Amino acid sequence: MKDLDKLINPGDRPSRLELGQLWSGELDPEQAKVLGERAQAQPAAQAWLESLEEARDQAPAFDAEILRKRAFRIQDDEQREVERARQAAAPKPRVAWWSQVFPVVGAVAAAAVAIVVLVPPAHQPNTRDRHQTPYTAPGVKGNGGIEFYMLRGDQVHPGSEDELHWDGDRVQFSYRTDGESTLVLLSLDGRGDLNLYYPASGDEPVPVVPGERRMLEGSIELDDAPDFELILAYFGHSSVAEVMEEVQAIHDEEGREGLLLLAHDYTDVDSILLRKGETSPGAGGP
Amino acid sequence: MPPTDTELQVLYAQYAPVIHRRCRSILGNEEDASDAVQETFSRVIIHWESFRGEASPLTWMYRISTNYCLNRIRNRRSRADKRHVHRDDIVSTSFERGGQLWEQEDTARRLLDLADDQEREIVIHLFFDDMTREQAAQQVGVSVPTLRKRLNTFLARARKAMESDGVALAAGAVVVLLSFLPLLLSLGGSP
Fold it and tell me: What are the pLDDT digits (tens) for A84-102?
């Protein structure tokens, strides 16, 4: 391992912030001239400037609408956060203990009676009421939703729910949506674990482009979880945490079948059920 | 008064590649880097009035994108993902040019994993932004001696962790070699 101290800039080369200022044209001509000369004497600085030039093609294309929508969402989230903090910080009025106990006891008794009388024995999902009208945002089903390609060994082919899959298979997804601009893609595996794939990190769903079918960047490698891997794609949701919460709640109450039903009933959710083989092909399987 | 699309587009052409390249080196993948660009420019829209008065718009954007990166790293650390999402295109393009540059970024990303919240910002400015200690101290808002002290404590811990990684790797190699020893001996003894 290199001596870490030696990686720190002793002051003989411009920082990358300064190089960024130079590259973006932010400096006045005199400053730019001096910095440009310093940069020319340093191969690392030159390499960084070249990589900025390449980044022109790599940065996401400008889309004012996406930026404005996101700005609105950030402000909205921040306002809600401020409101939550304000409520949490507000002093609670002091109330006599008996005035709190009697209503609670009464409410608990009434709720117990209501549960016994009204709730049928069947399990009810605690998130969406799937007996009501399904979500009818711009549709992603029909020709939309998610599909996948599979890489096994060095062979790539369009994936199918009809075939078996094994530990080590690599899967890359494609999507199509008519109007939604975000996607969260996750899975439930045969061990009962939820795995978030897109976004790879953070709480913001990945942006997607409505219109023709597109590939998602990157692929996932299936592990040795048994039986199945149920892939779920949520379109048009703004919070990864909310999606994870809903999936977890439905899974807790109704298991895999509840999630399949959700994907079947609602146009904003699509699913792919990958069935797992018991023995890998390399180990003498089919 | 929010910026017009044209104003925004001009800024975007000028700065988006810089923010994208920087965040890609810190976060290590395209998807997060692209998201960082969108987050930064969305905040430009929100703070447009004060942003217009900035002497160095890029310095302002650096602050925003640093916060974004720190949040991402924190979330990534707290969310254990059992499988690796492959991102082949980054690895291949980065090694082709400026291998030394990439090696430094790779080392710095390992440092980020070892750092706590306070130390990460220092690591970002020193090892990704290639700032001097003085410049980094100014960005973080601490004195140079304070930064030096925090850095030394952190680097001592990081060195230890990285060395123990190396020891574990070497030990693994010895175990593998030993497991092949009977085979090697039998081959050596055969006529």
Answer: 888 887 776 665 666 666 6
Here the CATH number for the domain that contains residue B88 is 1.10.1740
Pairing of strands A145-152, A170-176: antiparallel
Could you say which of A16, A66, A68 has the minimum Cβ distance to residue B129?
A16
pLDDT tens, residue by residue, B121-172: 999 999 899 999 999 999 999 999 999 999 988 888 888 776 765 554 455 4
Under 8 Å CB pairs connecting chains A and B tally to 197
End-of-domain residue from the set B36, B63, B96: B96
CATH number of A145-283: 2.70.50
Q: Residue A145 contacts by C-beta under 8 Å, 6 or more apart in sequence? A: A175, A176, A233, A270
Domain extent listing, chain A: 14-56, 145-283
Amino acid at B153: T
Does the CB of A21 have a partner CB in chain B at under 8 Å?
Answer: yes
Among B71, B96, B121, give the residue marking a domain's end: B96
Q: Which of B30, B58, B89 sits opposite A24 (nearest CB)?
A: B58
**Contact yes or no for B101 and A48 at CB 8 A:** yes
Record: contact B41-A67, CB cut-off 8 A: yes
The domain of B181 spans 99-191
